[in-house]
Amino acid sequence: MRKITENVYAVGIVDWNVRKFHGNTYITKKGVTYNSYLIKDKEPVLIDVVDKGFEEEFLSNISEIIDPKEIKHVILNHLEPDHSGALEYIAKMCPNAKFYGTAKLKEGAGKYYKLNIDINVVKTGHTISGGDNTFKFIEIPMIHWPDSMMTYCAEKKILFSNDAFGQHITANKIFADEIDQAELFKEAKKYYANILWSLGSIIQRKLTELAAMNLAVDMIAPSHGMIWRKEPLKMIDIYMKWAQNKTENKVVIVYETMWGSTELMAKSILNGLTAKGIDAKLFDISSTDFGELAYEMLDAKAFVFGSSTHDNEMLPYMAGFIYFLKGLKPLNRIALAFGSYGWSGGAVKDISEMLKSSGIEVIGTVDSKFKPDAGEIKKCFDAGVMLAEKLI
Ligand code: FEO
Prior knowledge:
By secondary structure, this protein is of the alpha/beta class. It folds into two domains: 2-243, Metallo-beta-lactamase, Chain A; 251-391, 3-Layer(aba) Sandwich (Rossmann fold). Helix content is 34%, strand content 26%. The strands form six sheets. It has a seven-stranded mixed beta sheet. A five-stranded mixed beta sheet has the order 12-13-14-15-16, with no helix packed on it. The chain has a five-stranded parallel beta sheet with strand order 18-17-19-22-23, with helices on both faces. Strand 20 (309-310) and strand 21 (313-314) form a beta hairpin. The protein is elongated, with a radius of gyration of 24 Å.
C-alpha cells in the first residue's frame, strides 16, 4: 500500500512468483503486479480488483486506509481474471458498494463468476462522483478485451488505464521513474508485443480519440507495473509508434535444429547480415520463450526462420512459434526461410507457406542436404547479404 497523491492509494498486489502469464507464452521472469487504486473521498472509490489467491492481502491493504465497508463505489475496468478473481470476496467485504463496468463486462461477469452482483452499466462519457472527485469512463473495447475501459479522474489528473501502458515488472516501488529505465521500457515493450500487438489499428483509433479529449494527465496509472508520472503522455506517443507497426532495419533469426546443420546455416546467414552492418540477433526456439521473441520482433523489419525437416515437416517448436506470431499480426515484414534435410525436404516449404499465410513476404529460401558444405554455407551467407541489401 502506498500513497500516490493526496487521498489516492495503490492498494494492489505484487505477485512476485508467477512465472507464466496467459498460459505458456508469456514468461514473467520477475512476476506480475495486479494494481488497484483506492480514492478516499466522502464516498470512497476502489478502482479494479486483483487476482484470486490474494484476497486477504488485498483486503488488508485497503483496511490500512479505510474500513472496506465504507467503500461506496467499485469500478471494474476489465473482467480478465487477473483483475477480477477476487471480485466475489470483495463484493462480500464491501457490502455498501455499487459496482460499475461496461455492458460487456456485465455480460462476461455473469458467465464467468455467476455472481449475484448488480453491475451498473456505464459508457464513454458517463461519470460518477465520490464527493470531491469525479470519475469519467472511457470505453476501450478490444484493448484488449471487449469489456475493457479506462477511468479518468479530472480532479487528480490521473488516467487509470487498466491494461494499456502496463508492464510485467515487480519492485517495491510504484512509480516508473523510481526503477531502472532500461528494464522498465523493455518490459513495457514486451508487454505491448505480447498483449496488444495484434490490435494496432484499434489502438491507433482509440489513441487518436483519447488525444482529442484533451485530458489533463499528470499520471497514467495502469493495472500492471509502474505508474507513469514523469512525462506520462510520452507513453501515448510510444504506443502510437508500435500500433502503426513502425519498424527498424533489424533482423531476428529464429531456428530449430536436430543435429546442428540448420544451426550452421543460421550462423552463416547472420554472418552475411553482420558483414553488411545490419543489427541482427539469433535465437534457438527450443530454448527461447515466445514472449521474448515477440519483444525482439515488434520493431524488426525482417525475420529469418529455419528448421530441420522431420517427417517432411518443420520441427514442432518452430511450427508453434510461427503459429503464435501469425496471431500477433505483424505487418509490412519480409523474411527468409531456410533449413536442412536428409533424404527429402519439407521444412522450408512449410515455413514459407505459413509465413505467407501470416501476411509476411518471403523474399528468399535456402536449403541444404545433410550437413551444409562450403558452397551451401556460402549460399546462406549470400542470402544474409541479399536480405541486408533489401534493408539498407
Ligand atoms: Fe491484465 Fe487483460 O488483464
